[in-house]
Amino acid sequence: MSDRRLEIQGLSKRYGETVALRDMTFDVRAGELFGFVGSNGAGKTTTMRIVLGVLTGDAGTVRWDGKPVTLETRRLIGYMPEERGLYPKMKVGEQLAYLAQLHGLRAPAARRAAGEWAERLGVAARRDDEVQKLSLGNQQRVQLAAALVHDPRILVLDEPFSGLDPVAVDVMSEVLREKASQGVPVVFSSHQLDLVQRLCDRVGIVRSGQMVACGTVGELRTGGTRRLVVDAPQAPPGWTDALPGVTVLHRDGTRTELELHDGTDDQVVLKTALATGPVHEFARRQPSLTELFRNVVTEGGHR
């Protein structure tokens, strides 16, 4: 049975005493946008380079459609490296057509695809300009066009939104959603976690070369500590002090944000708040992806 997903299984990579990857394992399903996030040096780029065959892992496998990735498979991947890989003195249109031909398109189809993607990504007016004469944002658009020009079956993008203005971010987001809707597995890394939260079907958080959390944004946000926002205008300072398993995170006027530890009954918190007078708000607050990321990274920072 065909299983058009990208599978990364047990990747390990060491440089001398430095461990870059340790049993890195996750998959990107057909038609899925997968956000790959972590601090600088966490192992994201190393993983992507092994998928592309730029690096060789010490252990582990990369599979697509249930089979090991080969050189032929890698021609089907659209890759956008973090360190941009365009020829600075080559004209935009010529470069895109050339890269399309390297991936197997015939010259007429390559020129046609180059024109279509230059138009779609807003750089058609610069097709006859050298890449080095473009702004960094437009170079970024050309780099994405280079990843898409051969109609890839898999997309692997390293920091594709870096340096883009809001309009370009919207254009790129639309393109990635469109490719996913066509059944393409899309994995991209980004430090813009609000964008990842908004765009991705699933997210993997990487720390020290390992995948330490993976799931939908909803799963990750509900899987952490429980938080409550309570607005009890007549509650005196310290009204939660006698409650076991409750930590005050923040106070803003009459509103108090609380963290509930495992086993703490939120109804006891509500009863205590009501004992002080009226309660205008009592709501569970889910942490943002940025907060989750910060917590995960901090947990590993003292090892």
Automatic annotation (TrEMBL):
Family label: Belongs to the ABC transporter superfamily.
Family annotation (SUPFAM superfamilies): P-loop containing nucleoside triphosphate hydrolases
Name listed for the protein in its UniProt record: ATP-binding cassette domain-containing protein
Xref: PANTHER family: ABC TRANSPORTER, ATP-BINDING PROTEIN (PTHR43335)
Pfam families in UniProt: ABC_tran, DrrA1-3_C
Positions of the ABC transporter domain: 6-233
Keywords associated with the record: ATP-binding, Nucleotide-binding, Transport
Tree of life domain: Bacteria
GO terms assigned for molecular function: ATP binding; ATP hydrolysis activity
Taxonomic lineage: Bacteria, Bacillati, Actinomycetota, Actinomycetes, Pseudonocardiales
SMART domains according to UniProt: AAA
Signal sequence residues: none
Cross-referenced InterPro entries: AAA+_ATPase (IPR003593), ABC_transporter-like_ATP-bd (IPR003439), ABC_transporter-like_CS (IPR017871), DrrA1/2-like_C (IPR025302), P-loop_NTPase (IPR027417)
